[in-house]
Amino acid sequence: EGISGAARKYGSRLAGVIINALPRYRGEDVEGTFAADIETAGTKLLGTIPDDRRMVAPKLGQVAEFLGGRFLSGEDQSDRLIENFLIGGMVLDWGPFYFASRQNTGVIVRGDRPDVQLAAIQTDTTRALILTKGVPPVEYVMYEAAQAGVPLVVVPGNTPDVAEQLEGLQPQVAFDHPDKLARMVDLMSEHLDISAIEDQLAQPATR
């Protein structure tokens, strides 16, 4: 109904429809029913931009502020994007393979678990340690984190509560990072019919 209304309102000025943040499992719906509805409305599907973690990733400084935390080290990396969060020490296999299962990760772990902290630091995908219960790590962890370039942020609250609290951060995340812009350019180039959009923009303006 929204597409039909837009087609009636804009007429020939409507170049087509772009579907944004498409979940991976919804691809068949777009190729089937939704694509048919778009064609029936008299326009066309210009492409679908898939859901992408980078586009909705908060900055580390934003995470620290939201959780009421403070940097122990690495505050100069507060603009670093955190695309995923993993909980350390609450799963059976919390070694390096677990922490390497996601990219650009913020690891949420108790401040008094140096074993888990060191395992997370050993992976190339860990972008920060979020240390819970307001407990700073031992000096050896501080040293290893500095050597690996992994910022440390200490926050109040226990690990499960902090993980749950982070769910409320998403609505505050903005598109204000150069890495997001670069990623959006890549997504558009890969998934959109750019030539059709350019052709439409080249047409003279009409009412």
Can you describe what's shown?
- With 207 residues, the chain is of the alpha/beta class.
- The chain folds into 2 domains: 75 residues, no CATH class; 110 residues, Udp-n-acetylmuramoylalanyl-d-glutamate--2,6- Diaminopimelate Ligase, Chain: A, domain 1.
- The strands form 2 sheets. Strands 3-7-6-5-4 form a 5-stranded mixed beta sheet, with helices on both faces. Strands 1-2 form a two-stranded parallel sheet.
- The longest helix is centred in the first third of the chain and has 14 residues.
- The radius of gyration is 22 Å and the shape is elongated.
- The two termini are 23 Å apart.
- The mean pLDDT is 90.
Summary of the model, kept short:
This protein is α/β, with parallel strands linked by helices and 207 residues long. The chain contains nine helices and seven strands.
SSE layout and pairing:
Layout lengths: L1 H9 L6 E6 L4 H14 L4 E6 L9 H7 L3 E4 L10 E4 L8 H4 L5 E6 L3 H8 L4 E7 L6 H10 L3 E3 L4 H7 L12 H14 L2 H9 L5
Parallel strand pairs: 1-2, 4-5, 5-6, 6-7
Antiparallel strand pairs: 3-7
Helix pairs in contact: 5-6
